[in-house]
Structures are given as structure tokens and as C-alpha cells.
Amino acid sequence: MQTKADIYILAIESSCDDTSAAVCKNGIVLSNISADQKIHAEYGGVVPELASRAHTANIVPVVDTALKRAGVDVKDINVIAYTRGPGLLGSLLVGAGFAKGLAQALNIPLIDVHHMKAHVMAHFISDPKPQFPFLCLTVSGGHTQIVKVTDYNVMEVLGTTIDDAAGEAFDKTAKMLGLPYPGGPLIDRYASEGNPLAFKFNEPNIQGLDFSFSGLKTSVLYFLKEKISDNPRFIEENINDLCASVQYTIVKILLKKLKKAAHETGINEIAIAGGVSANHGLRNALSEMAKKEKWNVYIPEFQYCTDNAGMIAISGYYKYIQGDLGSLHLPTVARWAMGD
Predict the structure, then answer these.
(1) Alpha helices, H only, 193-308
(2) Which stretches of the chain score pLDDT less than 70?
(3) Helix (H) or strand (E) segment spanning residue 61
(4) Distance (Å, rounded) from C-alpha 156 to C-alpha 153?
(5) Could you tell me the CATH number of the domain that includes residue 226?
(6) Can you state the percent helix, strand and coil of the chain, rounding each to 5?
(7) How many helices and strands (H and E) does the chain possess?
(8) Do both 280 and 227 map to the same domain?
(9) Residue 195: phi, psi to the nearest 5?
(10) Would residue 336 count as lying in a domain?
């Protein structure tokens, strides 16, 4: 039963190729529904035009399912939150247009949410929750950042990638190995059966807290070309060790910078977020480092690691209670710095 004090938020996420809707009540996520798009596997990556078309087809049934799963009527919704950016412009426009139209029809407030901030805010969906201030390593297909979080939705980027993201490095390396898209989860799976020290790949020498993964991809490419010229079946015969070695290198790069950030800031509350935070190699290595460094580590549930509307809902909830409302006239933004 709804009371006047209840805050029901319907959240929409459509930044890339997952159409997602969630409902939360007073900061508690009641439902989190997503529809993925299998068609991109045929092309080895996300095709923006196909993604936006699929969002158009998926958004109504996904929202309807989220409302039914939560046991909430659309008339009970007080607020609508949506991903304003960053992301694929066509995909963002579908979600933003739907959210703005429904908010206008229901005459309720609208809240725009930063996609990467929402990944960080996923840590406030369920217990245990990090204490402020904390550091969050956000790793996805499009972003790799170390973020200092001092309050809900108050964040400072301490380091970011100067070229490719960690998730992109996983997927593009997987493509070199002949694995289908998305290849990151497959590398994770094969790596569990391989030797992470079997092969050595170049690591970047980047000062400060920034990341770089383009050199690693080049290192893997030339290594494979050399080995395949001697043995055309090299990848097939060594797939587990190759995946384990690539994963080990990427994780080592990520945690080296995270450790440096923790030492420089003196913060021992450490979180990870984003699609790559579902990687078992990263999770296990972070847990081991946490024991040595005496960190308190926070990792979201798997359903809140990849792109999802639950994180948009919780981010929208904290913006709403702080009075940070959006507007029907805000444009979607494909590129949006976290500090803006």
C-alpha cells in the first residue's frame, strides 16, 4: 500500500545494447529487468543503429515487466530516472525520449543520471555498503577509472584511461583469439583452466593514476602473429593459457593503479563497479590484495555489475532526496565528463 511518504522511482537505462527498467521504493530496488541484444554477436561488436532499433522494440515490454514484477502500477510512480549519458547517442535518445514522455504524461519529476556515477552508486542497492570516503575502480567496455567518492553522487576522477578501456581490451583480445562477441566473459571462463604465467605481455609505463591498454593489445597481436606463423594451431592448443595470461596482465595493470591510489589517498574502503567487475580473475585478485593491504572491499551483485536500471534507480533516489531534479529540456550526451 502506498503512503504519501513513499517514493516510487521508475528507472530507464539504454546507454548501449541492454534495454533495462527498474522500480525502487524508498531506495529499495523491487525489480530490475533487462533485455539484451544477441544480434551484435554476428558483427563482433555493438552496431549503434541496430542497438537503437532494438531499444525501440524492447523498451515498452521491459518497463511493463519491471512494473509487474515490482507489483506497482504506473500511476503509483512518483519520479522517473533515466540515463542521460555517456553512451551511444541513438540508444540514449530512445530511453530519454520514453522517460521524458512518460514523466510529462504523468506530470511527475524527471531525474537525469550519469551512467558511470550510477555504476558506483550500485554499491548502495544492498548491504554491505561502503563508508565515505571510498575509492571505486570502475571498469567497463567503454571506461576505466579510479573514482574518489565523498558523498552520494559526489565523485572525483583520480585516474582514467588515456586510450582503450579494460573491457575493450578483453573483447578485442578475445576477437584476436577467435572467440565470439562479447569475448570478455569467455576469456574469464577459459582463464580458470589456464596458467596465468604461461605467456608474458607488455605492460604500460604510465605515470600517475591513468591507465593504458592499447599497448597490451598490440603486444598480444604481434605475439600471436609470430606464434601462428610457426604453428597455425597455436591458439587452439593454448587457448586456456592465453586467456589466463591476458586476464592476469589486465588485472595486474588495474590493481597496480588501484593500490597506488589507496596509498596516495590513505583510503582503505575500496569498491569495484562496471561490467568487468563481474570478472572472476579481478574479483579473486582484489580479494587477495585486500587481505595484504587491510582493505574493506565491496563488490556488487552480478546483476548490478553490467549495465542495468537498478543502478539508475538508486542513483536517481539519492538525487531526488537531495532535491537534484532534471528537466524535460536537457539534451542527451554521448560524452559526459564525470565532474560536469
Answers:
(1) 214-230, 234-265, 280-293
(2) 1-4, 37-45, 339-340
(3) helix 48-70
(4) 10
(5) 3.30.420.40
(6) 50, 20, 35
(7) 9, 10
(8) yes
(9) -100, 115
(10) no
Give me the amino acid identity at 147. V
Integer Rg of the chain from CA? 20
C-alpha cell at 327: 528537466
Q: Which residues contact 102 (CB under 8 A, 6 or more apart)?
A: 10, 74, 80
What is the spatial distance between Cα 251 and Cα 253, in angstroms, rounded to a whole number? 5
3-class secondary-structure state, position 273: strand
Mean pLDDT (the chain) is 93
pLDDT of residue 5: 84
C-alpha cell of residue 235: 591458439
What's residue 50's pLDDT? 84
| First CA to last CA distance, the chain | 38
CA distance 19 to 58: 7
pTM: 0.93
Q: Is residue 326 part of a domain?
A: no
Cβ-contact 225, 176 below 8 angstroms: no
Distance CA(254)–CA(132), nearest Å, equals 22
What is the number of alpha carbons within 13 Å of residue 87 lying toward its C-beta? 29
Q: Report yes or no on 332 lying in a domain.
A: no
> How many structural domains are present in the chain?
2
What's the CA gap between 25 and 314, in Å, rounded?
Answer: 10
- Domain boundaries, position 51: 8-121+305-321
Cα-based distances in Å from 229 to 40, 200, 222, 232, 233: 31, 19, 11, 6, 10
Measuring CA to CA, which residue among 161, 158, 136, 280 is closest to residue 216? Answer: 161
**Sheet arrangement for strand 296-298:** 154-160, 144-151, 134-139, 269-273, 296-298
Name 223's Cβ contacts closer than 8 Å, sequence gap at least 6: 199, 201
What pLDDT shows up at residue 1? 46
Cβ contacts of residue 91 below 8 Å, gap of 6+?
Answer: 14, 15, 16, 17, 48, 51, 52, 55
Of the candidates 100, 107, 63, the residue with the CA atom closest to the CA atom of residue 84? 100
Q: pLDDT value at position 48?
A: 72
